[in-house]
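Changelog note: in this version the structure field was regenerated for every chain. One regenerated record is shown below for reference.
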Amino acid sequence: MLGVAPPAALAFNLPGRRTPAADATPLAVGRSSQQEVAPPLAVQQLQEALDGRRPRLEILSPADGALLPAGPWTLKLQVEDWPLVDAGPLGLGPHVVVQLDGDPPLPLTDTSTSMRPLEPGSHRLTVYAARPWGEAVKGPGAQRQIRLHRVAANPLSQPAPGSPQLIAVSPRGTAAGTPLLLDWLLLEAPLQNLRSGDASWRLRVSLNGDSFLVDQQTPLWLEGWRSGSNAIQLDLLDGLGEPLNPPFNSLVTEVTLEPGADAPRWQGGRLQPAELAVLLGEAPPPAAPEPEPEPETKTETMPEPAPEPETALDSAPDMETEALMGAGAAPTTGLGNEVQAEGENPAESETATADRPNPSVPSTMAEQAEPPLDGSVEP
C-alpha cells in the first residue's frame, strides 16, 4: 500500500540498487518483490559501444494529420547516426520500433514498411530508436509521433497535442529468462526536479500487485519474476500523486516467463569480438546453417511374376486342332458352317459336300438298305 507522504518519508531503495547520496532525489519508493540487478554482461558491452551514438529520426511519409484511404499504407522513415542491424541467429542489433496506438511494438531494420489498415477515426503513430535489447533511446530527436486519421478526425479520442504521454516499452510478450528490462517512454513530460524534491511527475509501477514509484526515466533490470504470466501496470501521476492526463496514461501489459526457452544472445554471457561486430553492423551476420538433406528412401522393386505353365485343359483344343489340320480336315466355325480349306477346289468341295451325309439329318437310305443276297449278315 502507498500512502500520501513527503518523498523523504517514503524514500527507500529497491533491493540491489546502490545507495544514493543524501541530497539526491530518491528514484524509487514503495514496496516490490522484484530486485534490481545489474544488466547482463552482453548488454553492458553493447551499451558502451553505442554510447557515442545520437540517433535522429524523421517520419517522411505519411504527413502529420494525414487522412489515409482504406487498406494498407506505407510508412517511410529517415534514420541518422543509428545503424539498423538484423544479426541473423544473434537477433536484432540497433533498430527502430513503430507503435500504432496500443498495438504490439513493431521492430524494424529498414526505413520503409507496409502498415495495417486503419479503423475509422484518429490514431497515434510513435517511432523511436531502440537498442538491441529493446530499450528506448531517450535522447532528443530519437523519437517522433504523428496523428493519422481515416474517414474523419476524432480528436477527443486522443491526448491533446503537447500533453504528457506514457508509452510502455518493456517487458511484454514472452521471455526465456531473467533479469527483465522495465522500460517506458515519456513524451511531452514536464520538466522534472528543477529543485530538490520538486517532482512534476511520478510513475507508479505495479508488478503482480506490488507497487513502487519512480521519478526518473531510468530503465530498471529486475529479478524476481514468476514463471508464467506477470501483470504490469504503469500509471503516470503528477507531483501530488493524482493521475496525469487520464485515461491515456494508465497502461496494463503482460509478460510471460517461459524458463527453458531460447534466450536472446544479449541475455547470455560476454560477447565475443566477432559477435559484437555483427550486432553493431560492423560485420555481416553469419550464414544460417543449411538444413541437412533428408535420407533417400530406397524403393524395393517387386519381381514380375513368372508366367503360369499351361495346363492340359488349356492345350487340349490346340492339340485337337493340330490333329485335324494334320489329317487334312478343315476347321469349322461354332455355327456348324463349313470353312473352305486353303488350296481346295471349290467344285470338288461342293461335290464332296453333296455326297457326304449331313450329320444333323438321319440317313433314310442306310435304314432301308437290303440285306445281302447270300443271306449273310454284314458285321
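Spot check on this record: The mean pLDDT is 78. The domain at 24-279 is CATH 2.60.40.10 (Immunoglobulin-like).
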